[in-house]
Amino acid sequence: MRKFQKALLLLKEIKKNNQQAYIVGGFVRDYLRGVENSDIDICTSMTPDLLKQYFVVKEEHYGSTIIEYLDDLFEVTTFRKEIGSKQNRYPNKIIYTTSLEEDLKRRDFRMNAICMNEKKEIIDLLGGKQDIYKKQIVCIGNPDQRLEEDALRILRAIRFATTLNFSLDPALSISITKHKKILKNISYQRKREELDRIFSSPYILRGRELFIKHQLLEVLEIPNLKNAILYHNATLIWMQLGVDDIYPFTKEEKKQMTYLRKCKDEPWNIYRIYEADFNTAILIGMMKGKGSTEIKILKNNLPIKSRKDIQITSMELQQFIPKEKLSYYYKKIEQAILNNQLKNKNDEIKKWIQKHR
Prior knowledge:
The chain is of the alpha+beta class. 46% of the residues lie in helices and 12% in strands. It is built from 18 helices and 11 strands. The protein has helices spanning 3-15, 26-33, 48-54, 100-105, 128-134, 143-149, 152-163, 170-178, 188-199, 204-213, 234-241, 251-264, 270-275, 278-287, 292-300, 314-317, 326-338, 346-356; strands spanning 21-24, 41-44, 56-61, 64-69, 72-78, 80-83, 93-96, 115-116, 122-123, 136-137, 167-168. Helix 9 (188-199) packs across helix 11. The protein is elongated. The protein starts with a helix and ends with a helix.
């Protein structure tokens, strides 16, 4: 059973207990756009304590409860009002309510405040449907207030405008520029999560234009984005920004980006495809204008996959060259074989070494 069908059954299950429940947010927005989305959020009048009585609860935080239902996980959020904010990110106080409209009014954008009931009927109390048809992102209520409540909404607005190829409501656009400095209050981890989605979008050019228009590059500490080559891959964009020690990256991610920088400005080199792991090889191919399928075929059909495949032993090589130069000559042999200048045969390699030592 698809997760959507399970969600509709969950709504019915909650309503059996004389409570309200709706699918809300991104799933409904994309449903109206004719786009598939498996990320299903549910809002309900049922409090977390009641949810624990009727369902298997996996996690609970800030009034949101992760429950397991029909072998799937759903985030179920109790209707609430949020009062005040601290550090432009979290509400000072949460008050549960039984009013769907009050719950929707605390959300960020009208297009994300459309609901669906268990009969697949759409409930649009704030006018989000017209925004979707106009392809426009409009704040719920006063944009200054909305952004001050949660600075991450600035990046979410840019992200949605980029990934959905929507425009920003003029009032929201003005407010983003006005409040850009509060992005400093957002953790680098949360900022990276939003930027990853923007950098991976087919409409990344639009994202960059919005960053520049709203003067966000300096605040986000990514000024190099202005002149970066816009590959449709987040790693290849991060690699150009030089922020490895500012934003959170794993050791492996940093290592990969360092390697990609070495490859970026050098001519096409089959040796780089040979020595790189599969994922990195595909990224190198992207930088050189080659498709992933082409790189996969190329890498799978290399005459050697590693130094172990070379048909000569180190003991045999030492008959011709000193031990301290083994590594140097092994690399030369690899390159010659990969460039079809040398056949991977023992006798051929010995002749080649004698000629090139």
